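So, who can interpret the following?
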Amino acid sequence: MHGGAEPYVHRTLRGGIELVVERLPDRPIAALDIRILAGMADEPADKLGLAFLVEQTINKGTAKRSGQELSDAFDRLGALHGSSAGRESFGFRCTCLPDFLDDVVALHAEFLRTPTFPEESCEVAKELALQELTALEDDPGELSRKALSLRAYGPVLGRHLYGERETIERIGRTDIVGFWQRNFGAARLQVAAAGRVDAERLADSLEKHFSDWNPSVVRATSPAVEFSAGRWHAHKELEQQYIAICWPGVPMSDAAHPVERVMLTILGDGMSSRLFAEVRERQGLVYWVGAWHEHPRTAGMIHLGASSTPARCEQTYVTLLREVDRLADDISADELARAKTQIIARTETHGDLTRARVSELASDLFYYGRPIPMAVKNAQVQAVSVEEIRGYLSEHPRDRRCVVTLGPAAPPAA
């Protein structure tokens, strides 16, 4: 454990629990982020959507309380809590007054370790998933991203949170319980905390409640991305045509990640970005355009997205890629400086400091295995040069692309 004046505590507890704490003694709250290293990638291929159903039902009843009684217990502590399921992890987040942190840990242990998964709650969760799939048909942007993910990340990491209608319908309570039994345990537990937190006391509490939890569950390795290059079209009667493009980038832990981050800010972050200014404002090709990256635990992918008219779809596609290539030729010192300022200002002013910090710490633990001070990340961003961005674009060609269009007109063959 780091000592004394250090703001961070980082250690591995009994049972394999990973803990990182950032002491913020002037903050009036404690924020907790509990992550289970399992997710959609661990679903059986014929039970897609199972992770979502587990996340929706795990707090609907325990060996001691009903779901409503559990919710009331959190409310009595004034604790705000939520959960999510993702490709490779489940997240359980909570903020509370520091005096109640031990009680909050105990409540999380109760529903994570002794859920009853009531039959009625399982059926309600299935119905919710089916409703979400129905709603998805009216969200062409998300539909195009779903189609792209399957091809860009492969059949395991490219799964969608809500699965498919036929896989959801065949899932029963026994499947939900089985997933929890196989994948939830102390060895897959990562915990981040920030605020007015007594790190030693939190470590003791976590060991008390979790260290002997399901020792047969061991830490699993991350699945590999299975990238497929090519162009695909999904027909849907729409007024707009959606374009989703991606190609391999770098993992979060790669030394080039800050360079990629700055590059994407220049390309697609905000109304001053190149894609917005050129593709939307100057040429009027699109209703919406953006650039971003996504990161499974050990990989990275660059994404471009836009919505255009069917007639202008191919011109938009060509223009998007041209703008990326042009960046290597005429990037200016002014736009580089502006992008750095955007990134650093966002990290320094991001919402509630305590909640933002615990989210960042949880991400650090997941991707790097250790806390990375914000000052270090900002210094890496600040150090990015024009030459490094040109070098990145040269070393990461865009010749192997995954492209999906969604709309009424199939584009011409490449």
About this structure: The longest helix spans residues 119-136. The domain at 8-210 is CATH 3.30.830.10 (Cytochrome Bc1 Complex; Chain A, domain 1). The radius of gyration is 23 Å.
